[in-house]
Amino acid sequence: xxxxxLLTKILYRSMTRRTSVxxxxxxxxxxxxxxxxxxxxxxxxxxxxxxxxxxxxxxxPKTVLVLPPLNNSSEPLAPYSYLASVSKxxxxxGYYVFPVAxxxxxxxxxxxxxxxxxHTISLDKINEVLAADAVLYVTINDYxxxxxxxxxxxxxxxxxxxxxVSTGEILWQGRASKSKDNARxxxxxxxxxxxxxxITQVLTANSDRAHDxxxxxxxxxxxxxxxxxxxxxxxxx
Length: 237
Known about the structure:
By secondary structure, the protein is an alpha/beta fold. The chain folds into 2 domains: 1-51; 61-231, Rossmann fold. Helix content is 45%, strand content 21%. The protein has 10 helices and 6 strands. Strands 1, 2, 3, 4, 5 and 6 form a 6-stranded mixed sheet that branches.
């Protein structure tokens, strides 16, 4: 399949980590199986007890595909500004994260130019082409600067869910919201207040404060305080 060969070529280097993780997992499983059979033979085939699976062990993902977020905000650049800040906290949580820029380019090249269309991909197709264990779907509800008369406020609000590719089960869902009043400059006179508003607009034009809030929100959302499940690399530390 030309599409799969193209993606394989693009992701070759980045998949090295994932391969090593799967190999270690297979070796561990093989060791456990060998020990289990040894115990069974040692008890003259009378071994009938079994261990209850640990909570979450039945479908614990190792790799996560992050699709570009749906955007319900008025800021057209919000999805890709947000996307730049999501991989790090997921990796710190113990997952291999497919390179978001590569995935975005690959999907666009294959007839899915918008996040809305990307979110319609079936889990079966994701499993067939990318072989990801789970997909993170994100919706941005609010992002950017809100101006009110001569004051402004930076806001970020998003919801997310982690879905198992093999079963379609929602493994986790959460929400993050942050806001910050922008600093004022000058005195309390009309001229000072107007100057403050002008300076604030200039500064926010040169530095994306909403992006900073999104980064902070992602750290909080995926660091465990919101019950986000830890990945295999984190659990093996």
